[in-house]
Structure formats: structure tokens, C-alpha cells
Amino acid sequence: MEFMTRKPVNLNRRRFMQIVAVAGTAAGCWKLGLFGAGKSLQKVRRSQPIMGTVLNLTVYGQDRDACEEALVNTIGKMMMLETHLSRHMAESELAELNRNSLLVNPSADLLTVLRLAENISKTTSGAFDVTVLPLLQMHESIRGENDHPDEQDLMTARGLVGYEDVYLSEERVHLAKEGMGISLDGIGKGYIVDQGVSVLRTHGFNNVYVEAGGDLMVSGRKDNNSPWCIGLRPPRPQQNKPVVIEVSNKAVATSGDYLQAFTPDLKHHHILHPTSGFSPQELASCTITAPTVALADGLATAVMVMGKDDGLDLIQSMQGCEGYVVDKQLKHSNTAGFFT
């Protein structure tokens, strides 16, 4: 049986990226779809509610019917994955695990996401932790009441948080403490996007855009052989000019205090420090580019918890990853390669 140990593990960066590559096959070495002269390309878009947000897909191809079929199959696959990974769906695998603290014969997808979450937790020294659900539920229950939880409730919830108390094997997933719970909000959506892109690849579409709630993967290039231009939403309304980056064959994910705020002043929100039980106070937003959306998603959450210096130092050390942060005073910082 595999399990998460209490002692922090400092993974070798190269080994960690190998694990990530296996977990997110959708972002492998993409073959660029270059457009030959005289070929008329169709641009087909679709949107679909999923994981509490909206899924947006764009594909370029020569045959509209083939594009339509690929999008239908992709959306079907992504919605099926939601039934495994969503904590909000009563019949999902994750919901069953949270109810019973035990799940027998977990699906390969759920195990893949939980193992990737474990590796991100170890790499970030616990800044990313999917077992924060008891804390999250506590804060959600007092949303709009200045978020001052009862001290005993806070202590109890904090005692149920700890990624090292999740035991994983091919046969079962077990939560060591009664009352523990897992939220994959910070990684599951990214994994679903990765797998959606993978489905499109199997249908022969390499020039695609797949996005859900601001977490996205772009593959190949657009119809004029140009890279995709991605606008990063400013964390505050007074910043009315978005930052635009050009990307190709890359995942982009953003975490921010404004996305699910518990109080109007944005002091309390859905991103929680696993140890203190409260929202970190340095950063307003963090955007990560990475080989997979699941990795970018998890690292964006972790950097929000770690803060600018420690967070960007970590991202700078990881092959294929770059980061951009905005603090509460709206000052911008980024790793050396973010805009290149």
C-alpha cells in the first residue's frame, strides 16, 4: 500500500516533472499543426457548464463535421470525469470517499489526480493540500459574517487537515481521520481540461483552445499560424488593462482572492493556508504556465499560500514552469521567462 509520510519530501525536480508528464498526457510534446497554402480551415466553438463554471472549446480543422464530432466526444469525456472528481456531485467517487473516509476500487483518473496532488504537496512543503475541505466548509458556513470562526471549530477543522493522512493504493483510498475530506477544486478542473485536450488530439486536432473557469490549455497555433494571445484578468477593477501573453502548447492557470471571496474586503476567500486555517494575505493573484493544466492549477494555489518570494523561487526552479503574481498593493512580479 502506498501512503503519504509525515516527513516532508524534497523531490528531485527532474523526477517531479517526469511524474507530471505521465499524469497529464494531454500536454506532451505537441505536434504543431501548420497550415498549408490553399487549405480552408474551419473554426468551431462550443461552451458547456461544468465543475461549477463554463467550459469553452475552440478547434481549427478542415472539416466542420469532424470538428463537431470531436467536440461532442470531448465534452462527453470531460463531463464523465466530473462524476469522478467533483465534491459537489452526491454520486461522485470523491463524494463517496468524503462520506465514508474509504473508497474501494478507485478509478484510474481519481488515483492519478490524488497522486499528482500528493507530489505537489511534497514539492511545496504542504502549501498545497487537498485535505483542506473541513476548513473550507467552516469558512463557507460563515460567509459574509466577517469570517471570525469559533475557536473550537477552527481547532477541530485544522486537526483534520494533512495530506500525509491520505492512504492510496490501486485497491482503495483511505482517509486516516474521521471527518477528513478532500476538495479537488484546485487541481481537478485542470486535470479535466488536460484530458479534454487529449481527446481532441486523438481525433487529430492539434490546434485547439480548451478553457474552464480561467484554467486553460492551448495547443498548436491559430488559423494564421500565430500563437494564441491570452489576457490575464486583473485582480482589481481599477486595473482595467489586462496583461496579455502569447502562448502555444502550454497550460495557463490563475488563482486569485477575488474568484471566491468570503468577505467584501477580499481578506477571506477560498484559498486557505493549511496550517493557519485562514487565507494568506500577501498576494491578490497568481498565474502559472506549465506543461499541464493540473500542475499549473495546483502550483497557482500553492504560490498564493507561499507568497511572492518563496513561491516564485520554487517556480523558477521547475523546468517548463513560469509564474506571475500581483500582490495586495497591485505590484507585479514574475519569473525570468514568463513573458518570453
Helix content: 25-40%
Shape: globular
Low-confidence sequence ranges = 1-10, 13-38
Number of strands: 14
What name goes with the CATH superfamily? Answer: ApbE-like domains
Question: Strand fraction band?
Answer: 15-25%
The end-to-end span amounts to: 43 Å
- The helix-and-strand class reads alpha+beta
> What integer value in Å does the Rg equal?
20 Å
How are the strands of the largest sheet arranged? 2-3-7-8-11-12-13-14
3D architecture notes:
It contains nine helices and 14 strands. With 340 residues, it is α+β, with helices and mostly antiparallel strands. Strands 2-3-7-8-11-12-13-14 form an eight-stranded antiparallel β-sheet, with helices on one face. Strands 1-5-6-4 form a four-stranded antiparallel β-sheet. Strands 9-10 form a two-stranded antiparallel ribbon. A hairpin with a 4-residue loop joins strand 13 and strand 14. Helices cover 33% and strands 22% of the residues.
List keywords for this structure.
340 residues, alpha+beta, T-fold, eight-stranded antiparallel β-sheet, four-stranded antiparallel β-sheet, 9 helices, 33% helix, 22% strand, globular, disordered N terminus
Secondary-structure map with pairings?
Layout: E1 2-3, H1 13-23, E2 42-50, E3 53-61, H2 64-85, H3 93-100, E4 102-104, H4 108-123, H5 133-141, H6 151-159, E5 166-168, E6 172-175, H7 188-202, E7 208-212, E8 215-219, E9 228-232, E10 243-247, E11 250-256, E12 283-290, H8 293-306, H9 308-316, E13 322-327, E14 332-334
Antiparallel strand pairs: 1-5, 2-3, 3-7, 4-6, 5-6, 7-8, 8-11, 9-10, 11-12, 12-13, 13-14
Helix pairs in contact: 1-4, 2-7, 4-8, 7-8, 8-9
